[in-house]
Amino acid sequence: MTPLPAAVEAVRLLRERGETIACAESLTGGLLCAALVDVPGASDVVVGGVVSYATRVKHSVLGVDGEHLAQRGAVDPGTAAQMADGVRRLLEADWGIATTGVAGPGPNEGKPAGTVFLGLDGPGHRLRSEPLHLDGDRDAVRRGTVGAALSSMVATLCE
Predict the structure, then answer these.
(1) Rounded Cα gap, residues 83 and 39, in angstroms
(2) Which of 45, 47, 77, 99 could form a disulfide with 129 if both were Cys (CB 3.0 to 4.6 A apart)?
(3) Largest distance between two CA atoms of the chain
């Protein structure tokens, strides 16, 4: 499989910095981590990932606050940020990146398909979250999320 250009750049930048990354994924179901490991040499920087598709896994494995989940739900910027922090801590990586949202075809938690939140946690960038509103079918939303997450990671590493 041909690696995505943003994945190649993210791996290159992480390698140059001597830093590692871990992924926490919900709607992307492992696609983000797979995109990173498609890059030759990714083993130097990718620690691993957690697919936390079920809300209870976000709490029990990643440590997302249970009260926050009860009040705000899984499709929330705070949830994305806590997922990124949780996977970074759990897998002892320098960076944690997370995806949560609604791939579709219908709404979830009262939010329409295409509502996505990215979480990023790392050195000097504590608990950052970004909203996305993506169009298209389920596959397009999931793949668009991966592309946006990788682009966000590259932009952050270049700051």
Answers:
(1) 24
(2) 77
(3) 42
